[in-house]
Structure formats: structure tokens, C-alpha cells
Amino acid sequence: MSLEFIVKSQKLNKRYGETIALKNVDIAIKRGSIYGLVGNNGAGKTTFLKIISGLTAADSGTFSLLGADNAAGYRSVRKRTGAIIENPGFYPKMTAKQNLEYYRIQRGIPGKETVDELLYLVGLEHAAKKKFASLSLGMKQRLGIALALMGEPELLILDEPINGLDPMGIIEIRKLLLKLNQEKNVTILISSHILTELENVATDYGFLNKGELVEEVAAEKLKEKCRTFLEVKVTDAAAYAALLETELLCSNYKVLPGNCIHILEHVDRVSDYSALAVKHDIGLLAFEMKEINLENYYMNLIGAENQTSDAQE
Length: 313
Prior knowledge:
Elements: E1 5-16, E2 19-25, E3 28-30, E4 34-38, H1 45-53, E5 60-65, H2 71-77, E6 81-84, H3 96-107, H4 113-121, H5 137-148, E7 155-159, H6 167-184, E8 187-192, H7 195-198, E9 204-209, E10 212-218, H8 219-225, E11 228-234, H9 237-248, E12 253-256, E13 260-263, H10 270-279, E14 284-291, H11 294-302
Parallel strand pairs: 4-8, 4-9, 6-7, 7-8
Antiparallel strand pairs: 1-2, 1-3, 1-5, 9-10, 11-13, 11-14, 12-13
Helix pairs in contact: 3-4, 5-6, 9-10
């Protein structure tokens, strides 16, 4: 059955004691996408992934997974998913290949060539005979992804897969995820607080804060919002904003507290904007070209007062 959404939740709720981990979360993940789940530590990302993966149960609410929407159905379709939410239990004295072979046999997956194919897919064919303990952190992460890919899953669920990696390791994981998505058509649900890296891979985003879904947006739409703008601070923002409209025909701006204005269109007309203040004797306190990146956008979205969270992951 062809499904537009590979995961879709409705009003998922989860508490840990008095702490709200998820509150009425509605998330829809399209088949073939790379969905970036964004949030500070404690925002609820891991809780959501654990519910989808079957590692914990929601207190209330529903979700569909590969078309299944009940316990029996979940057990069946989870064979078509792979996940790394907590560190896989690899044996340090066994080689990379031996570890994967162990899990292949344990899971009853036929074909000894499967392990070699997985090692090649994640770029570890040259490290097949290296003991797990001697692998770099990036190699260990890729071996974990190889394990998650065993059985050729349609959905890959990854919780902070680049956390702690050096720049080269991050690039390796990024290339691997794009390859899996573009060449193998694997849908990927990935959580991360390293937002600059998510920008390189995600096709869709869900922003969580204190257990609530603040916004869900496609990467294309987000790029329109994450733009270069002029930040102007004046002595009278209301008067300056009115002049922007009447004299410069500028309507795409935002008036912020502290007599601050963000001008979002025609940002190359710097001299016109500064001359406007001078012409009408409005004090020009600051004038700076800025750019909204994903991290700025998230912080603006949740508000400065909510930049920390005590919700349990």
C-alpha cells in the first residue's frame, strides 16, 4: 500500500512523574524525506523516537507507522524500520564484521554476504577486521547505522548520530545519510541539537520545545524564512516604520521591542534606509546586516525565555 506519510502522530502525550515530556504532539513524516527533529536537550526528541520505535509507550494519543495503527500492526512493521536511539551493544573484542555477523544470525537474516554489503554501504569495508574497541567514534557510529540498516529498512530512526564527532566524522555521516536517502530511498527521522548540520540534510523539520511541537515546516519554506535582513535601531520605531511604507514603499518589515526594526526586503538599499532616518531627524542608533540561520530561527521561535527546558528526554 502506497502511503504519503510513513509516520503520523496525533496528540501524543507522555509524562515522567510530574514532568511533561510530550504534550499533544502531532507530527507527520513524508515517505522519502529526511525529517529533522529539532529541540534543546530535554525538548522531548528522544521520547518521541522511543515511542515510535516501541521502546516506551505513550500515555495517550495515537500514531501510525508504515500504515499500522495498533500494537499488533506495530510489531509487524517494525521489521521494516531500523533505529539507533541508545548505543548498540557491540562487543569490544570482536571485529566490526564479527559484531554484525553476530546480530545477523541472532535476527535470523539469511545470506552471509549481507554483512559485507552493509560494511561497504557505510564505508567500513576496509575496517572489517578491526576490533570494535579500536574503531574511531565516527566508525563506531557508522557501524551502528550498518546494524540499523540490517534487513533493508524503509525507515531509519537516528537519535543524535553526530553527537561528539569531529568535523570529518560529521561529514562522513552526512554523506552516508544523503546516500541512503537518495540512492536507497530510505526515509530518515533524525534528531539533533547541532542545527547547522541538519541544514545540510533535512528536507522537513519539526521544532519541539518543552514537549510541544512549536512548528512543522518544509526545508524549502524554511529557507524563505531564514534570510538576510537589515536590523535597524532608531529612536522612534513607529515613525520610522510609517516612513518605510510611505516613502520607500517597503512593507516587509517587523517592529520588535527596543525600537528595533528588521527590514526583510531590498536589503541592498542600505543608503536609502539610513538616509530616511537622517532626512526626518530620527536618531539612528544601530544599523547592521544580519542573517537568520536555523539556530537563530529556532531560538526566535521558542522565545529567549524558553531557551532552557527541564522536560525529561
